């Protein structure tokens, strides 16, 4: 029941049609008896500034930020958490009585999604594909947990900029090209690009470069073509659903200042994915 007292939470992105966030959060709000409602907003990049200002104008309690806005949105905020500032990307905004503060819960979400699968990050070599906002969150999380990062991006200048940003956190190197000599040295390969969101997207990596002993992670959900190929090869495959879940749990707690109903959110997500 939506009333004049209902607090609105949303998500800004392009595209947003695929998002499962409204299902996860609305189920959690209902379970705890909170007068909140989560809705998706399809925001194209030319309207992002207006959309962020509308958070204040419409008294929206908070929003998630997804591709392609995570980095650009920072310039329109009043405050940014230390972690989000370091990463250079925001995926969660809290409206605290007219002050907009940005957070990054993606990094925590990625780390916890691996821990959920019994995977320790420390001392493992990670090949990270991409250098956007999500990739930076992955890199930050891996380095903070003691892993090594080898980053590849089609625009090499962005890969080098990412290396410079995180150089003091641990071992991070730029990979100019990817071949078997690179992938066979890695334990974990992460697609941190948005490739796989659309049906006609190319694969971010040739399946021929994967080995059965690799752990293959994808931030895209529910399942991408490369995830399917990795499964055929015998890789341990971790999709973006775990990262989606754990970043959502952290965001929920930022907006409500309450402990998130983890099991309810988890059951809701996996129920939708197995339909």
Automatic annotation (TrEMBL):
NADP(+) binds at residues 82, 130-134, 153-158, 219, 240. Residues 121-194 form the Quinate/shikimate 5-dehydrogenase/glutamyl-tRNA reductase domain. Its EC number is 1.1.1.25. Keywords: Amino-acid biosynthesis, Aromatic amino acid biosynthesis, NADP, Oxidoreductase. GO terms for cellular component: cytosol. The active site is at 70 (proton acceptor). It is an enzyme of class 1 (oxidoreductase). GO terms for biological process: amino acid biosynthetic process; aromatic amino acid family biosynthetic process; chorismate biosynthetic process; shikimate metabolic process. GO terms for molecular function: NADP binding; shikimate 3-dehydrogenase (NADP+) activity. It catalyses: shikimate + NADP(+) = 3-dehydroshikimate + NADPH + H(+). Residues 240-269 form the SDH C-terminal domain. Pathway: Metabolic intermediate biosynthesis; chorismate biosynthesis; chorismate from D-erythrose 4-phosphate and phosphoenolpyruvate: step 4/7. InterPro entries: Aminoacid_DH-like_N_sf (IPR046346), NAD(P)-bd_dom_sf (IPR036291), SDH_C (IPR041121), Shikimate_DH (IPR011342), Shikimate_DH-bd_N (IPR013708), Shikimate_DH_fam (IPR022893), Shikm_DH/Glu-tRNA_Rdtase (IPR006151). Residues 11-93 form the Shikimate dehydrogenase substrate binding N-terminal domain. It comes from the Bacteria. Shikimate binds at residues 19-21, 66, 91, 106, 221, 247. PANTHER family: BIFUNCTIONAL 3-DEHYDROQUINATE DEHYDRATASE_SHIKIMATE DEHYDROGENASE, CHLOROPLASTIC, SHIKIMATE DEHYDROGENASE. Belongs to the shikimate dehydrogenase family. Homodimer. Involved in the biosynthesis of the chorismate, which leads to the biosynthesis of aromatic amino acids. Catalyzes the reversible NADPH linked reduction of 3-dehydroshikimate (DHSA) to yield shikimate (SA). NCBIfam families: aroE (TIGR00507). This is Shikimate dehydrogenase (NADP(+)). The gene is aroE.
């Amino acid at each position: 029941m939506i009333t004049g007292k209902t607090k609105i939470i949303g998500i800004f992105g392009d595209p947003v049609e695929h998002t499962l966030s409204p299902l996860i959060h609305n189920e959690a709000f209902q379970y705890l008896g909170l007068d909140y409602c989560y809705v998706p907003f399809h925001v194209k990049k030319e309207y992002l500034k207006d959309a962020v200002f509308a958070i204040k104008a419409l008294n929206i309690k908070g929003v998630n930020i997804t591709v392609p806005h995570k980095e650009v949105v920072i310039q329109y905020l009043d405050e940014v958490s230390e972690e989000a500032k370091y990463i250079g990307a925001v995926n969660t905004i809290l409206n605290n009585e007219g002050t907009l503060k940005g957070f990054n819960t993606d990094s925590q979400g990625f780390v916890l999604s691996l821990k959920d699968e019994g995977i320790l990050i420390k001392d493992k070599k990670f090949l990270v594909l991409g250098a956007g906002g999500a990739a930076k969150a992955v890199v930050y999380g891996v380095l903070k947990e003691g892993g090594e990062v080898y980053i590849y991006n089609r625009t090499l200048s962005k890969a080098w900029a990412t290396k410079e940003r995180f150089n003091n956190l641990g071992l991070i190197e730029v990979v100019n090209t990817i071949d078997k000599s690179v992938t066979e040295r890695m334990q974990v390969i992460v697609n941190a690009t948005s490739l796989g969101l659309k049906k006609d997207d190319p694969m971010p990596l040739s399946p021929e470069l994967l080995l059965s002993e690799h752990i293959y992670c994808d931030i895209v959900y529910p399942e991408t073509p490369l995830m399917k190929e990795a499964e055929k090869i015998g890789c341990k495959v971790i999709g973006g659903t775990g990262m989606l879940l754990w970043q959502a749990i952290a965001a929920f707690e930022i907006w409500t200042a309450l402990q998130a109903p983890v099991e309810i959110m988890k059951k809701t997500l996996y129920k939708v994915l197995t339909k």
